[in-house]
Design goal:
Bound molecules: glycinamide ribonucleotide
CATH superfamily: Formyl transferase, N-terminal domain
Strand content: 15-25%
Distance between the termini: 27 Å
Oligomer: single chain
CATH topology: Rossmann fold
Strand order of the largest sheet: 3-2-1-4-5-6-7
Length: about 210
């Protein structure tokens, strides 16, 4: 899906790809003025791959099992990113930690979305963990990726009240709905050059 404007974006996803689909929509609608140049996935059966094919986004399938070590696996991903002149990497449910070397190579150019209000409920099961803990509020965080898991400077957060009649399923649906709005918004801010990082704090410049 080439628009010949702005930065080249790569999305990295291992799963269903509903956030990826929301990003595809935002690019198509012109809300994000950038080229959706590449989907990187480590899972042959990922829903994200089918969505990329439907939207004409180039796919790089890089399976961990095809490489002797993490270093070689990441080197192949980096090769794809460099060949496609990627200026922004968007993690959308890519369920592997990137090595510190990878993160340093693309310093302040990797975004992640997390389905909780960081620094609470880090990890792969944040919605369930928050629900079972019994917190009264949770939410969604979009942040820059640094060397630690679910840790880098926070770009946007959106809180959500957990109601007494919420089930895990209803909470998941509400969280995903917020994600699909928040992630395109954060990507747009990045693409427009409006995010300035001061240590842990991200300031959003007005237009
Ligand atoms: C999203 O809920 C995202 O926040 C989560 O994976 C899901 C991917 O869904 N990421 C993490 O938990 C990262 N720690 P999707 O494939 O439908 O976009």
């Amino acid at each position: 899906m080439e628009r010949k404007v702005g930065v080249n974006i790569a999305v990295m996803a291992s799963g269903r790809g509903t956030n990826f689909a929301a990003i595809i929509r935002a690019v198509k609608q012109g809300k994000i003025k950038a080229n959706l140049a590449l989907l990187v996935s480590d899972q042959p059966g990922a829903g994200a791959i089918a969505k990329a094919k439907r939207a004409n986004v180039k796919v790089a399938l890089v399976k961990r099992g095809d490489f002797a070590g993490k270093k070689e696996f990441e080197a192949r991903i980096i090769q794809h990113l460099e060949e496609n002149k990627i200026g922004l990497i968007v993690m959308a449910g890519f369920m592997r930690m990137l090595s510190p070397g990878f993160v340093r190579r693309f310093k302040n150019k990797i975004l992640n979305i997390h389905p909780a209000l960081l620094p609470s409920f880090k990890g792969a099961h944040a919605i369930k963990d928050a629900f079972e803990y019994g917190v009264k509020a949770t939410g969604v965080t979009v942040h820059f990726v640094d060397e630690e898991m679910d840790h880098g400077p926070i770009i946007l957060q959106c809180p959500l009240e957990i109601k007494e009649d919420d089930s895990l399923e209803s909470l998941e649906a509400k969280i995903h709905k917020i994600e699909h709005r928040l992630y395109p918004q954060a990507i747009r801010l990045f693409v427009e050059g409006r995010l300035k990082i001061f240590k842990r704090k991200v300031k959003i410049a007005s237009r």
